[in-house]
Amino acid sequence: MYPHIFLPISVGGIELKNRVTMAPLYLGYASEGGRVSPLMIEHYRSIAGGGAAMVVVENATVDHPVGSGTRRALRADTDDNLQGLSELASVIKKEGAAACLQINHAGRFSIEQAPLAPSAIDTFGKMTRAMTIDDIQHVREKFVQAAQRVKRAGFDMVELHGGTGYLLSEFVSPRTNKREDAYGGSLENRVKFPLEVVRDVRAAVGDFPVGYRFLADEWLPDGLKPDESTLFARALSNAGVAYISVMGGTYESFFLPEVIARSKIEGYMADLARTVRMNVNVPVITAGRISSGKTAEDILERGKADLLGLARVLWADPEWPKKLEEGRESEIVHCDPACNDACMHLVMKGKPAFCMQWDKEKIKKYNEMFR
Length: 371
Ligand SMILES: Cc1cc2nc3c(=O)[nH]c(=O)nc-3n(C[C@H](O)[C@H](O)[C@H](O)COP(=O)(O)O)c2cc1C
Ligand code: SF4
Description:
Bound molecules: flavin mononucleotide, iron/sulfur cluster
Distance between the termini: 42 Å
Number of helices: 14
Shape: globular
Order of helices and strands: EEEHEEHEEEEEHEHHHEHEHHEHEHHHH
């Protein structure tokens, strides 16, 4: 019934059984100290077991605490977590999905009092510290070390987080990058740091695919827009990333009324993905309320993207792919836009998230596992 959704595809040399991927979704399930918890293992086992071809595990910090967006961020910056990360990769693969881990530096949205950023800029009442050339070098090395750890842990791929307004995207944005050196000013200078990270990571991990979460539009009047971001996408494609996973918005635009309204629409980022896809030679993932089989099939059939990134949609019902494939679409438990992003608000308060659509038994089970 949905031929395009269930077509296999090769991404960075990894064979994916269909076009459904889990887009990274931070839920606050790691233990204190950013360790992989039993709840996290159970969560990703259930997602991978539902039939998705690839699971991109939520953002893991490359440098704690300066690069962490929350106290419970998963840690990819220490070998102390290697065993837990290996367990996570193994559980996902055992369920038949490719395992990918997203690595991140939160930049100006870090938990630090004076977060690192391209330039000194007010961020929700905190003044950031402009990075020195030494800081830039240090963060590049942290990304490299984290990516090598992801490979050693047994994941199939690593994804660099260049979305949500975190550090990599802060360099690209004309709004947050006010530097006057070789890393600021022209677009060519603003993309220099993320491209250096891609180059260094690729050189260090060798034959191991490196994907990129990509901010195509900040949805802010003075922010990054597709006229510039598509040129950056082309540079990423030429730099050898395995795929580009397109998103829009940052913490500064997510809660604007027009962005809230837009993000209730099915497939609301698919046109952004299409713009990117026209400019690159690598597979493109799109996310954003891809709730129904019809929307998903339509996106693929019309060539807006090569792959679907389902975050809340898959979390609300991990069996979304299986039910679709078996003709049981009417049984899917849907993420409900009317809940007004309850999960997002919970994690922003530092609490673990539970989906409002789950039955009481599942919420009880997850609550019991949380510690
Ligand atoms: C609670 C929450 C946590 C998220 N965490 C991440 C993350 O760790 N990394 C990332 O790149 N995107 C993250 N996202 C964005 C999602 O990957 C996705 O792009 C977005 O939620 C739209 O897809 P959906 O409608 O299927 O949820 C998060 C979104 C939400 C709501
Ligand atoms: S809590 Fe609400 S927004 Fe989050 S996945 Fe569930 S229904 Fe969707």
